[in-house]
Amino acid sequence: MSLFSPTTVGSIGVRNRVSLAPMTRLRASADGVPGPIVAKYYAQRAGIGLLVTEGVFPSAESKAYPGQPGIVTDEQAAGWAKVADAVHAEGGVVFMQLMNGGRVTHTDITGTDRIVAPSAIAIEGDTRLADGSKVAFPVPHALETDELATIRDEFVTAARRAVDAGIDGVELHSANGYLLHEFLSPASNQRTDGYGGSPEARARFVIEVAQAVVAEVGADRVGIRISPAHNIQDVWEKDDAETRATYEALIAGLAPLGLAYLSVLHGDPASDLIQDLRRAFGGTFIVNSGFSKMTTREEAVTAVDEGIADLIAVGRPAIANPDLVTRWEQNADENEVDQASVYGPDERGYTDYPFLQG
Ligand SMILES: Cc1cc2nc3c(=O)[nH]c(=O)nc-3n(C[C@H](O)[C@H](O)[C@H](O)COP(=O)(O)O)c2cc1C
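That is the input. Now the predicted structure with flavin mononucleotide docked in place:
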């Protein structure tokens, strides 16, 4: 198979095996509405087979960053409908990453009276408020067992809203230290109520969320992203038997659902752990080798050629190259990312990167 050959994701055809990795770009309004520049940004990148949006919050208390978009209010949903229309007008396919930020936030960002997590353990360090000032991560409220259904249902409602807005599907963000990942790691989940304490128990909530979202919008419209053994935002996961057992339990619960895809962020996607999880999952498989070194054309081409994955998620190169797939097909030069403008606030460094001439 070639990176440039078409495939399907769920029941939708995509024109190549490149996927836009979800990337938080913080260009929404203060009330979480994605405006016209957001629609333009994704539409510019619609030549990428599968677009996955930035992490989008499914409830006010789960907003992680100022400038992050939500899918809670009618105004937010209307903004996403314009994104979907703009992408579809260019022949693209777009999934929305649903991201409950868990403890990676602050009440001054959410505007709520609490932030939530599996256990009352704060991240060491600071987060940044809208005015740029730094503030220590607070101790989160440990979710009561009977509150879990509400958190699950927020994902369900968000998925329904996204699909009703014309978005092609949703990706559950269970990676990178946010709420669902916090359930998977013993460092952030010390629960004793059947949702923590063993690999199966830690995997349980993520599986329940996936089941509920599938029941609402259909498995073809639901993907999931994980990052096994990714130590980030104080979700410490050793590369050991405990981590393997947790992710095996997770995939054992997810495989029967027939999800649209499993997307994995891991430094070595060809490793035994990741390929074993892929086999256990049995469906469309997307990889990204992580933050430490930027994805290259060669890495992406080789990964598909060698059958390491069905699609490759590409992040930073697609920030700077709206026509990334065309450039990669032609082996053309690439624009470089301007680091200063990655996280906003406006169209600079967002929708103004040049396309290839001619
Ligand atoms: C600016 C930026 C924002 C990101 N935001 C998200 C996010 O919202 N959700 C997520 O799952 N990963 C996020 N990531 C991780 C990327 O999806 C990807 O895994 C990472 O950039 C490594 O891939 P690359 O080398 O192709 O850039 C982000 C990365 C960057 C650079």
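The mean pLDDT is 97.
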